[in-house]
């Protein structure tokens, strides 16, 4: 490649001392700078460093939170240097170091401007040896220890620790170097944990042997069972391996080797750009970003385990170092099944020269996997996103925020501003325009359905499509505007279809298509599309959440419960996962016990009020009105996240408690406090069906019959079931409850009877129509004694 002109590579055996500052990331920026200055002073004072430098036999490589010293002379040099450093540390009590030493092959790469760097197994294993230690440790690989053992003077200081498993499941034999006053004699915590685990396994093995003696008469059966197990293992191994798609690839999160840890966004951005470029190649199956981000710092998993979990045979790892205007990207493609390298490369560029790097990498990876790109694919992946490096940096900052699955409204708005800065610097930056459009569409759809966001999102999407033909992200953004803003599903599907052709492995597109199929009432097709999309994004809890919601909408309670359990396993910290599983149990079986148990496990911290509103709701279902009142009194929030589309005033929930207890006067005072909030929400977004439904719901409880029916009908008009089978059914659930509350039993009961058989008339909390909702919720009390209503309660949940 032209960018490699002027470089040369030499393979040699080097002796590497890797030094790391323990606790560096927890320091303040000024403290980090000071501690690095101390480290540099200690390193410069080491005699072995001076001698090697004078002989031209030393390369020093900063690592951000430490340094790697590569000696070309004797294997004693790094060990002697480590002891010298350890002795100097006595005068620097704040400087806590751990050190690792290994001798092995390295590649020296020198760029055209004489910037030298080192890569290769020698330096990688030295780092992994070091990673096994704690503060004060000087650890050696067995290879280095064997070299030192040939000199009697070293033998008393070498203490064998045995083998330990490091990154990618590789085993390394570790030796601890310490003297009476230098180094650390204590066994490193990581290695001690492995020893403890091995001891437990050994005890288990001894118990098994004892049991075997006790039950010796069963030896023959055990042998038969063992033979079956081995045969089964042989039979099952092949299907597992075939499930690892030979053309499938996962791009793991890149490591940030920059001195400035704030550059983590840059490493994430490079990874995401490479992943996005690979997703445009038809013959590859590229695992989506959401599923790979959980493998950041993947040392706890072997690559084979990751490949099995994701169903792919190839894994791309990499690191990024950004220093001023230079970027160094190192990548390696690995066969996860056989744990062998397929291809590797290193790119040392200026920031400006790195702007087309993701396309180069995608083409080279495709070639390594023997995938031939069509001319159109080659043109798409190799198109530079921008020629402006500053604009690209703002784009990467925005991307890290906007594409995070846990992004909240304030985060989206911060990302929006970074995208705006990017396109201000480069008005022709089509990809940034497209991502800006998607971000604004998400703000409109999920948080603020205001006309300003609507117009801005559409304008950016259309501009992106004009600036760059066949840009998948532009068609994605146009489809999001058609879908979320205009509810034009056919036009949205056409845009998503184009995006899917241009980026076949873009999992986001598949999820949106499945969501539209669900709204079109194509329930089975939607389930199939979500399941198909899960192959591209197997670790994405949002897909599992959608499978949960879809099965809930179909009242398939065993399936919904299974997906709820999977979601909790996949995202154990997710409040949504926990709460949804509890509501599935309530809708299916009628009891609130599981839901209360789940809420009891949740921490008291509740910034958005979601937990408070759920605790209030459960107390109301149980008709524990005093408990419901206490829940609200314990919250300092004035608004809670309870209904869709807008926050719910706490005064409204307080009013419902008074109403349920028959205290009309007290309830009306509280309703009046809440009324402006509901009415203002509709004024802000007059085309939001959900906000009209909320206002109609409010009016019904407040006793405003005509206004309640008007708003309920308006919600149904804005989202009829014929246009939206998913949310449209929920709008009719609101209308049914409005009819029930205002005394229109002749309208309420037939509608309830139909909704009990209608897919989609089940969501989560307060607006579902299930038999158990009707049985237990106090809101239905005005029609509870009607024989026709009672008959509905005898049906299947």
Could you please describe the fold and organization of this structure?
- With 797 residues, the chain is an alpha+beta fold.
- The chain folds into six domains: 193 residues, 2-Layer Sandwich (Alpha-Beta Plaits), CATH 3.30.70; 43 residues; 141 residues, 3-Layer(aba) Sandwich (Rossmann fold); 120 residues, Serine Threonine Protein Phosphatase 5, Tetratricopeptide repeat (Alpha Horseshoe), CATH 1.25.40; 78 residues; 111 residues, Serine Threonine Protein Phosphatase 5, Tetratricopeptide repeat (Alpha Horseshoe).
- Helices cover 55% and strands 14% of the residues.
- The chain contains 34 helices and 16 strands.
- Strand 4 and strand 5 form a beta hairpin.
- The radius of gyration is 31 Å and the shape is elongated.
Descriptive terms for the model:
6-stranded mixed sheet; 797 residues; 55% helix; Rossmann fold; Alpha-Beta Plaits; 8-stranded mixed sheet; single chain; elongated; 14% strand; disordered N terminus; alpha+beta
> What's the CATH class label of the largest domain?
Alpha Beta
The profile of the biggest β sheet is: 8 strands, mixed
- The averaged pLDDT comes out at 85
Radius of gyration: 31 Å
- SS-based class: alpha+beta
Shape verdict = elongated
Count every beta strand, where a strand is a DSSP E run of 2 or more residues. 16
Q: Report the total helices.
A: 34
Query: What is the total domain count?
Result: 6
Proportion in helices: 55-70%
Strand content: 5-15%
**Spans of 5+ residues with little confidence (pLDDT < 50)?**
1-11, 110-114, 200-242
Q: Under CATH, the topology of the largest domain is which? A: Alpha-Beta Plaits
Spell out the CATH superfamily of the largest domain: Nucleotide cyclase, GGDEF domain
Distance between the termini: 66 Å
